[in-house]
Amino acid sequence: MATELEGGDYGVFMEKFELLPPQSQQQEKLPLHGLTFAIKDIFDISGRVTGFGNPEWARTHGPAVATSPVVLTALAAGATGVGKTVMDEMGCSIDGENAHYGTPTNPCAPDRVPGGSSSGSAVAVAANLVDFSLGTDTGGSVRVPAAYCGIFGLRPSHGLVSTENVIPMSQMFDTVGWFARDLSTLSRVSNVLLPLPADRTTKQPTKFTIPKDCFEILGSLKDQTYQILNASVAKRFGGDALDNRNLGEFISNNVPTIGKFISDFSKREAPSVPALSVISYAVGCLQRSEFKANHADWVNTVKPNLGPGIRERVHQAIAYEDGPMEDFHVLRIEFKSSLAALVKDGGILAIPTVPGSPPKLRMETAALENFRARAFSLLAIAGLSGFCQLSIPLGVRGGVPVSVSLMAHHGADRFLLSVAQELYETLKEETKKAWGSFDYSS
């Protein structure tokens, strides 16, 4: 049943309504009873047009005939849907700015972008408008807005959660994810939405890889996240669990196909990790190829009015001529295998979610090129491997949110959440210690 509501906050909602859970006598015993959630405008809801962040897409598409299984699962577990949220046009940005519908206001840093493309979903949670929200992550669209808005964001293992009745971007990478303000709520939602058996055993991580190059080269030394993570892991799980090897070097030595491309990326503008730049390049090419197959006909027929930055990215994808796709597919297989060997069962990989503070609003695209390149070098790790990744907020420093990410191998999503729950209080303690109480706000 859907009932219309009125009003809007923080520029979050495309439309507000009420999707009520099915009525039952056991209502109060349902795992998500009493929780509200928002839905990115990429998920189908029967009888409503899915807008995909662009008014011409909405105008040229009819109402959905079925509802996304993920939305139905949340409703069946007792949660109430309260509306569709603003997203970047056609999912083609990690900034969160929409030229047609406006930019949701980042409650954590109002002069900075909220992150995209699941911008409205992240802001709805950060602004305390809902308890959790649904987003999608192809290249970073859950992880980035979670980091920018100072909340938790989970990108599950690729292929684990149904993407049926979700507009596709690039099926090789498309992943349904979700946001919450606290780990308790995130875990409640994950227990419902992850189609994995409940694991009652508490498993300690056997190894915690915190690659120095990812933090010192791609991240920001000012926020001290590298030191905070190392101190927290040593305190909680013991120093023997720590592994600080450089990820770029490991990939170069264990992914043979990297050698075909590495020289092209070794002379790039610093700071960069050439091996991760290759990974990012491969992900970008594979995504453009699939985006073209999914949407070229519509773009060429409708010729939509697209906002700045989006226009160039969409047309670049539509004009894309397949590169050495066979090499990219081999690279993907090799990378998955090598990363699985590094992390192993019971291992965790920790990296910066993003390479620094959220960019200021309305920055020129050219000024963001280096930042975006570093961001995608980090984001492509989970993308190409299919591993699960959780962005964890550490607090606000100097008026901007700071986060870190934990990753685990494919299918170890519950283990990842369990480790995060064990480590989080220690992370907060070490963050306060490193920053001082004056600089820290949770």
Automatic annotation (TrEMBL):
It holds the Pfam family Amidase. SUPFAM superfamilies: Amidase signature (AS) enzymes (SSF75304). Gene3D superfamilies: Amidase signature (AS) domain. Residues 25-417 form the Amidase domain. It comes from the Eukaryota. InterPro entries: Amidase_CS, Amidase_dom, AS_sf. One of its GO terms (molecular function) is hydrolase activity, acting on carbon-nitrogen (but not peptide) bonds, in linear amides. Belongs to the amidase family. PANTHER family: AMIDASE 1 (PTHR46310:SF7). This is Amidase domain-containing protein.
